[in-house]
Design a protein that fits this description.
Elements lengths: L1 H18 L5 H8 L5 H9 L3 E4 L3 E4 L1 H24 L6 H9 L4 H10 L16 H4 L9 E3 L8 E7 L4 H9 L7 E6 L4 E5 L2 E5 L1 H6 E4 L2 E3 L2 E3 L42
Antiparallel strand pairs: 1-2, 3-8, 4-5, 4-8, 5-6, 6-7, 9-10
Helix pairs in contact: 1-2, 1-3, 1-4, 4-5, 4-6
Length: 266
C-alpha cells in the first residue's frame, strides 16, 4: 500500500510538471523534494507508467497518464467538496491528499455530479473531466446548478464561477458577481438579466453558463430559499459563502477567500 501511494505521488508530481511544461528528471527530483527515491522512479518505468527518454527527460505513458488523471481529478474535486460544501479553507491540501488514495472512481464521479461538474479547484487549477462530465450526467440531484438552469424569478447564492480568462473573473468581480452573493434571475432572452446587490445586470449565455449557484433546498416539504434573510450569524465566511442548508458547518472556519486565487499548484 505504501508503495502504491508513493507511486501515486510521483504520478501526481509528473502531472504538475506537465502542466508547467517541465520535462527533466532533475525537475522531478525538485518537485518531489527530500522524498525522492530512485527505486520509486524505477518502479514507474518497470510498471510502464513513465518513461525516460532523450537528454534525461521524463514523461507519462498513456497508462501512467490515465492513472494520474484519476489521482488529480480525485484530489481537486476533494478540495472543491471541502471548500464549497464543508466550508473548510485551511488544510484542504492534506485532506485532499488522503482522499485521492482511498476513493473509487464511481464515488469521485458522484461528487462531481453533486457539485455540478466544476472545472477548477479552489486554487484555479483545472479539474480533469470524467465520463460524467462528458455525458453531462445528472444521475443524482446536484447541489450546484448552472445559472442557465435556474428558473426565472428565482434567487440563488453563487457557489463558484468557471471562467477561462482572468479578465472575465475580474469583470464579474467588479460587478459584485462573486461567490457567496445572492442573485435573482429576471429574464433569459434575448440576454440573461440578473439582479445583484440592487443592480440589474445583463450577461450573455456563455457567462451565465459559467456561473454556478446552490440549488434550492427542500426540507419537510417546504422550499428553503438561500437568500440574505436565511443567513445565520457565524455560519458564513467573510464573503458570505454558505453551504446548502442541509449541511452542517462549523462557524468561523473561513480564513481566506480562495475562489479567485491562482497558485502554481495544489
Amino acid at each position: 500500500m505504501k508503495q502504491d501511494i508513493e507511486v501515486d505521488e510521483y504520478l501526481e508530481a509528473l502531472w504538475h510538471m506537465k502542466e508547467d511544461a517541465r520535462v527533466y528528471v532533475e525537475e522531478l527530483k525538485t518537485e518531489v523534494g527530500e522524498r525522492f527515491n530512485p527505486d520509486t522512479l524505477s518502479a514507474l518505468r518497470v510498471d510502464g507508467l513513465a518513461e525516460v527518454y532523450e537528454e534525461n527527460r521524463i514523461r507519462l505513458t498513456p497508462t501512467g497518464r490515465e492513472r494520474a488523471v484519476r489521482i488529480i481529478r480525485a484530489h481537486r474535486l476533494a478540495e472543491r467538496l471541502m471548500f464549497d460544501v464543508m466550508g473548510v479553507s485551511r488544510d484542504i491540501e492534506d485532506g485532499a491528499c488522503e482522499f485521492e488514495h482511498t476513493v473509487t472512481p464511481q464515488l469521485v464521479d458522484s461528487i462531481c455530479v453533486m457539485l455540478g461538474h466544476p472545472r477548477e479547484c479552489p486554487h484555479g487549477l483545472p479539474i480533469p473531466p470524467g465520463e460524467c462530465c462528458r455525458n453531462a450526467a445528472t444521475t443524482i440531484e446536484t447541489s450546484v446548478i448552472h445559472l442557465t438552469n435556474l428558473e426565472v424569478g428565482r434567487s440563488a447564492r453563487i457557489a463558484y464561477i468557471n471562467c477561462d480568462r482572468d479578465q472575465d473573473l475580474h469583470r464579474l468581480n467588479g460587478l459584485q458577481i462573486r461567490p457567496g452573493v445572492t442573485i435573482k434571475l429576471h429574464q433569459t432572452y434575448p440576454s440573461y438579466v440578473i439582479e445583484c446587490e440592487g443592480s440589474n445586470i445583463a450577461i450573455d449565455d456563455v457567462i451565465a453558463k459559467n456561473i454556478c449557484v446552490w440549488r434550492e433546498q427542500k426540507q419537510a416539504g417546504i422550499n428553503v430559499q438561500k437568500d440574505d434573510a436565511a443567513k445565520t450569524a457565524g455560519d458564513e465566511g467573510p464573503d458570505g459563502t454558505q453551504p446548502p442548508a442541509s449541511i452542517a458547518k462549523k462557524p468561523g472556519i473561513f480564513k481566506n477567500n480562495l475562489f479567485f486565487r491562482k497558485c502554481k499548484k495544489d
